[in-house]
Amino acid sequence: MSVLRLALPKGSLEATTVEMFRRAGYKIDIHSRSYYPEIDDPEIECMLIRAQEIARYVELGIMDAGLTGYDWIVENSADVVEIAELVYGKVGRKPLRWVLAVPIDSPIHCAKDLAGKRIATEAMGMTKRYLEKHGVEAEVEFSWGATEVKPPYLADAIVEITETGSSLKANNLRIVDTLCETTTRFIANKAAAADPFKRQKMDGIALLLQAVLAAENKVGLMLNVHQKNLDEVLNILPALQQPTVSHLSNPEWFSLTTVLDSHAMRDIIPALKAAGAIGLVEYTLNKVVM
Q: How distant, in Å, are the alpha carbons of 114, 158, 164, 179, 250 from that of 175?
């Protein structure tokens, strides 16, 4: 039987990724101290690997596919096929940035000012390519953690990942430049992407994961409305596409079903009620396939 070898990110993305797969319909069990999770699909074999290494193992063909950050694909210069972009992280749902940061009172204000300076970072390849791009020679050293606290005594500057920049500000650092914007990517090696079975399997997984993300912050709404109030109710509804309108057993009444942004419901429901809608039912969504 053909099997898809799938790398899941170990570490900060681990719990979020497993929850995403659960909502997509896959049950993944991770046992203590085991790097081989069980998944309720006999056509998939999973392995937990650090996100920093997944792109390399996928490119080499050791794993067929995996989920990792675009930043680690860039860092490893990995030649892989992108199956889908999945905008999710440990907490938020926004892209992250790798930025060059320095102490607030530092004389460094652009890439050229880094000449002869020491830069601490986990993304050494990305940082070295950035310096090469700007024709600057500087010392780049690997940071094993707590990178924000290294300037100004242990480093003149850092290249670090951030979502809001709040941690940098808390450590009296300011952002000089952005090196890379990153989101989670579902990737495969070229051989797996060309294999009909594995590609179909990966496309199916990607579709379901994207549907899970599309359903976040959205809800379904059902309601009934009399024919005389139908147009007014329809004008209130900002539907994802167009509301589904169905006749009830009484030909003067209609049932409407639609998908809305959840944050808008507090204003829309009272307006619909005032316009004559009755039997309003709001419900959560697990997947939305666009």
A: 14, 10, 11, 11, 64
